[in-house]
Amino acid sequence: MPYRRKPAVALAAAALTLLSGTYAAPAHGQAIPAAGQTGQVAQAGQVVQAGRRDVSASTSLERFYRQRQKPSFKPCDPPELPPGAPAVRTECARLKVPLDYRKPNGRQAEIALLRVPARGKDRIGSLVLNPGGPGFPGTAHAALTAAVWAKSPITERFDLVGFDPRGVGGSKPALDCYTDAQRDHDAKLSSTPAGLDDWTGRETRRLVERCAARSGGKQVLAHVGTRDVARDMDVLRQALGDAKLSYAGTSYGTRLGAVYAEMFPRNVRALVLDGAMDPLAGTHERRVQQATGLQRSFERMAASCATRPDCPLGTDPKRATQVFQRLVRPLIGTPARTSGGRGLTFEQAVEGVTAALYGPAAWPAAIAGIAELKVGKGDTLRKLRDGYHERGADGRYSGSLEATLAINCLDEERHTPARETAMNRAWFKAAPFTDHGRTIRQARDGCEHWPVKPTLGYPYATNIKGLPATLTVSVTGDPVTPHQGGVNLAEALGGGLLTVEGEQHGALLAGNACVNKVVSAYLIDLETPAEGARCEL
């Protein structure tokens, strides 16, 4: 069950509700950065410290930084937008980066880019975007963000630039581990829920082999972590002609922004970090925090439902988890029927409900799906699950969840079976609505045989020198990235914090006038909100 930090707009549905009523680099001619700045590019033969990794640099990197690498943006068709969304003018290009920054003359990766040019003439520069995941493409996100912010002063003053991180979406090589048929049959993407169909040691070895064969080799699997992407983002900054980076990231995008700040603090102009991942919390702690938030959201959904006499979870919210488990646990042996004949398993039903917990706009769909289970049908929850996995009507899956798996193998702490088992037990204790009720004997970390050790490190983004003011936006009732994580990130970066009263994952694209005003003032005029600033969704 691959729980992850999905982009707020994709699951909280705030932006889609707003639009359609449904849920559904230095300036030209400037030299490359000199050595002596944290994470900066060094002169030939020197070594600089990039976060917690010593990165050898040489004049070979100059060809990636100097303006001869300027992307050739050309008009392209925008990604499909929700009904009623305003049209946006999009341009596409590609950027070359070293697959391994320690070997800049070696194999290269290509990063897919999409730009929506600024609407006005008084342009400040580019605003680089990341939607989260990890594993979500930023190109489509840039187009959607431009549509949501169609009348915002931000789109008047900035080009919006989305990029598909290495291994993701239209970038090459792209991460891929399973066939569509294997995905339809619940190919393993994480250890949760342990106790049903656990990875074996042989399977985790086979996972590496399969992912490497379908993604371009083990060298690719070794270089898709956040620290590699942060370096790509600095090459992108330079290629766009920006002396300093302006950036807005949601969910996992806050990790990417924070790591960039750690590695390239003097290259930062502005960072907006929405729905923050806690830089102080390790994998176990953060996953349990996430489980706690999802259970809280489930209970709030149940309480909302309980006001109706026909609520499929009953009229007593305290018993809603038990009612739900009685409905879904039989699916372990006998999937619910669906109109397409694919059926709905226990795991898929829980994923479908989880997909709706990122924001109240999608709660009615989950309630309708739970009601269907009472008569043995699974169509609505199957549809929610398919959306969560990005399965198209043609039966083809995007590679986002497979990218999530591979990126997390480099970002998350590598667990022994004992630690993975303990984490799963803690998860089910914190989120009992997901519990299958069976004994967890031994869970395995799917990454246990990954070709390299994790490269992120915990904590990260602490004790940064020379970083300008940043802005963290944190929703009090965020079910996936708890509010305290936003508080911790703001404190770690020494930046401003906007607290948003609400019950969804992220607020940047919620269409909220208060949030929009604070974010616009920061990005355009670099004004951070006063201490204690709050908005309400």
Automatic annotation (TrEMBL):
- Please indicate which superkingdom the organism of origin belongs to: Bacteria
KW Signal (keyword) present? yes
Gene3D superfamilies (alphabetical): alpha/beta hydrolase (3.40.50.1820)
Which terms in the Gene Ontology molecular function aspect does this entry carry? hydrolase activity
Q: Where is the AB hydrolase-1 domain?
A: 127-494
Q: Where is the signal peptide?
A: 1-24
Q: Which UniProt keywords apply?
A: Hydrolase, Signal
Transmembrane annotation, as ranges: none
Keyword Hydrolase carried by entry: yes
Q: Which PANTHER family did the record assign?
A: 2-SUCCINYL-6-HYDROXY-2,4-CYCLOHEXADIENE-1-CARBOXYLATE SYNTHASE, TRIPEPTIDYL AMINOPEPTIDASE
Q: Which family does it belong to?
A: Belongs to the peptidase S33 family.
The protein in question is named Alpha/beta hydrolase
Tell me which species this is from.
Nonomuraea maheshkhaliensis
Q: What is the lineage of its organism?
A: Bacteria, Bacillati, Actinomycetota, Actinomycetes, Streptosporangiales
